[in-house]
Design a protein that fits this description.
Layout lengths: L4 E7 L8 E3 L2 E4 L3 E2 L12 H7 L8 E5 H9 L13 E4 L11 E4 L3 E8 L5 H5 L3 H4 L1 E3 L5 E3 L3 E7 L1 E3 L5 E4 L12
Parallel strand pairs: 5-6
Antiparallel strand pairs: 1-2, 1-6, 3-4, 3-12, 5-11, 7-8, 7-13, 8-11, 9-10
Length: about 180
């Protein structure tokens, strides 16, 4: 493989755990995936709406690296793109290692900015028992590592398709690690 690539895209008009794999999603700057329940200027995730529905939506787009699915398969879980609720599944890019503020160009037009980590919720165990623990880990210092993907905001409108290339632009130093949003 020559570089990072989009392997799947998905959306769902309803709040739920899974999304529907699609041949294309359309992104709108400052809004998210057109037709997705989590799109909006203000937060759309139900738990966050209950706390403060006017907070900005830093979770307009959810990305997961396909390498996580490979790791989960080795642990006995069967997970396919869109089944953990992500909009974009990538391959060839260590999403979790990127700093906050990293910009990704998806295909020829779309630009997004990483805002933080997805904090896995108990719904994951409702999908497959034990899966929540499988998407959490500890680093050498004992710190919790969340592996269930990253969240982003949309900076530039456009379509995203499976097979689109991904270009990475890191923010200026000092880099700030991704934290749950």
């Amino acid at each position: 493989m020559s570089g990072p690539v989009v392997v799947a895209v998905a959306a769902s008009p309803r709040h739920g755990f899974h999304k529907q794999p699609l041949p294309r999603i359309d992104l709108m700057a400052g809004f998210g995936v057109i037709g997705d329940a989590h799109a909006g200027v203000n937060v759309q995730h139900r738990s966050r709406v209950a706390r403060d529905r006017m907070q900005p939506n830093l979770r307009q787009l959810h990305l997961i690296h396909a390498e996580l699915f490979d790791e989960l398969a080795r642990a006995g879980f069967a997970v396919r793109p869109a089944e953990l609720g992500e909009n974009v599944t990538t391959r060839g890019l260590d999403l979790l290692a990127l700093p906050r503020g990293t910009r990704l160009r998806l295909g020829p037009a779309v630009e997004i900015e990483l805002t933080g980590l997805r904090n896995p919720c108990v719904q994951i165990d409702g999908f497959q028992p034990g899966l929540t623990r499988a998407v959490l880990d500890r680093d050498a210092a004992g710190n919790l590592v969340r592996k269930a993907g990253v969240m982003a905001i949309v900076l530039t409108d456009g379509p995203v398709h499976p097979g689109d290339t991904i270009a990475v632009t890191l923010p200026d130093f000092p880099h700030t690690p991704l934290l749950p949003v």
